[in-house]
Fold:
Amino acid sequence: MNNLFIERNILCIDLKSFFAACECIERGLDPFKYPLVVANPHQGNGAITLAVTPYLKFMGVKSRGRLFEIPSSVKYHIVPPRMNLYIQKSKEIVDIYLDYVAKEDLHVYSIDECFLDVTHYLKLYQKTDYELAVEILNTIKRKTGLTATCGIGPNMLLAKVSMDIEAKHNQNCIAKWTYEDVPTKLWNITPLSEMWGIGKRMEKNLNNMNIYSVGDLAKTNRGILKDKFGIMGLELWNHANGVDLSIISDYNYAPKDKSYSHSQILFKDYNEENIKIIINEMTEILTARLRKNNKQCTNIGLGIGYSKNVGGGFYHTVKLDSPIDSNKEIVKYCNIIFDRYYEFLPIRKVTICCGGICAKVGVQLNLFDTYNDMKEEENINEAIDKIKERFGKNSVLKASCLLPDSTAIERNKKIGGHNA
Structure:
């Protein structure tokens, strides 16, 4: 078999309607029979529904919607979120997983979702991966009262997608996909945002390329995808073909390479329309630091934290073909990550990381940029850096810094933006 198609035994386990199920269990209620909604009752009808019970989902009520979107004919009970309770329950579940696998074979993906690599444990337990999944789900139910769903696959991608697409519809809440299922199951997924790792904005970008299903994406020329989305275009193509080279133990490895990072807590909710201003401004701070130290980076990371009323967020990185220090290039990759993973929820925190720092020893040209173009950009950036160093960070500003959603001017004042 081609070495791209690694064969492991991966379980992806998700706790069903986690927040709402925790609240029901604490009250002695059955989440499959009781209409409970987790939301902030003080925010009125516009409050976001953080979770709803499976009973309400069966009636067509969505999680992560708004209270006013629930049909007036549906009667329900609202309870406020209790994050400490959910964190404690999540720890109890993780302890159960650690009874079956070592820490390095467990990846906690979110508060209610984990990946387990059971490849080297099947012989020990004398079970198939499917039989072990049944046992783990039964143990979760017995010890906590919570119901879980599980996807099984030869890699993390197929385990996750089999859980998202099929497991929740099966009576025992378990589904197993193999590479043979890629053409008949994975390629049938549409709309594209139903696929793990493709958000609504990325779906729109792909639709504009006449790509509407995962099968369409798998059959698209990978060179076209790379030209459009960079290295992430190749990852999209690989995932559409069922290929995922990531290993759970890789997620538990603490990287030793140096990185430059910048985080910002926002003082109001941002969304897909105005967050790009913040991303651009933060990237300028990082690229100025790279230039000052004559450094470049080989990977880019973007993290988005949602409002505390919603919770959650994401952090993803992309490895680059060659080192860069260009603001334009780093912003491009940040925007690609954002478009791929953003869930259309209110944003309160942004983190950008330039990793794999290395000395700048030359210029890597591509087919579209000439040396003179890149040298001109370097000269302009160098001149701006010198002006800001002498007269303050607010001495030279982009026009976007004057927009009401910008935070650059106030932030610069706090970090040395004198003489504005």
Remarks:
- Residues 416-420 have pLDDT under 50 and may be disordered.
